[in-house]
Amino acid sequence: MYIAILAMVESQNGEELPNYGERFPWDVTQQGLILGADFWGSFATAIPGAYLAERIGPKVVIEFAFIINTFITILCPIAAQHGFKSIYAARILMSFLGGPLYPCFQNLISRWIPADEKGKYLACLQGGSLGTIFTWQMIGFLVEAIGWPWGGFYIPAMITAIGVGDFSSIFGNALYDWLSRNIFTSQLLGLSNAASSVGFFQ
Question: Distance from first CA to last CA of the chain, Å, rounded?
């Protein structure tokens, strides 16, 4: 969003800008709110995310957060077309889902990585700024080539979906397994008990 928004807003001084897709009349304050929305939710959900990582496992939380954020990213161009409030709400929701990720990654490293290799993985985690530099450059090229809806949202969402698939293949589909054990099984037991109580199986 930090790069894509440059191609999404109208000029503040009437300057003619390249056509990378529909532009929106968001002023400087609104642009700042959209960009700053990344941090509103993360402060509120970091500690609950750490609790959930201990309670249900970091893999479940990570998969859930990435899957929902991927869907929201796909919907962001539509949200932008519906106005400032819609895209702002989408960005805040994404920030709430992003908050638990860092404590979950730390929890995952503490559980899965051998003691003599933890430093390497922590260094990779702290080195995320290199990924940010690469991603911003990539999105800039994509926006210029194919416009901000695809370059800024759809293709990054596809890459994230591939990453989630790789994560699931390495660590197992933890979210599905957890839902199967705790949600689907409980519902089936509840239906079975309800049926028994009315004599359905008699």
Answer: 60
CA distance 174 to 118: 22
Residue 134, burial from CB neighbour count under 10 angstroms (0-12, 13-18, 19+): exposed
Give the closest residue to 105 by CA, choosing from 125, 124, 119, 123.
Answer: 125
Residue 171: predicted pLDDT? 60
What does DSSP assign to residue 9? B
3-state secondary structure of 29: helix
User: DSSP letters along 41-106, please?
Assistant: HHHHHHHHHHHHHHHH-HHHHHHHHHHHHHHHHHHHHHHHHT-HHHHHHHHHHHHHHHTTHHHHHH
Q: 9 forms bridges with which residues in the sheet? A: 24
Instruction: Give this prediction's pTM.
Output: 0.78
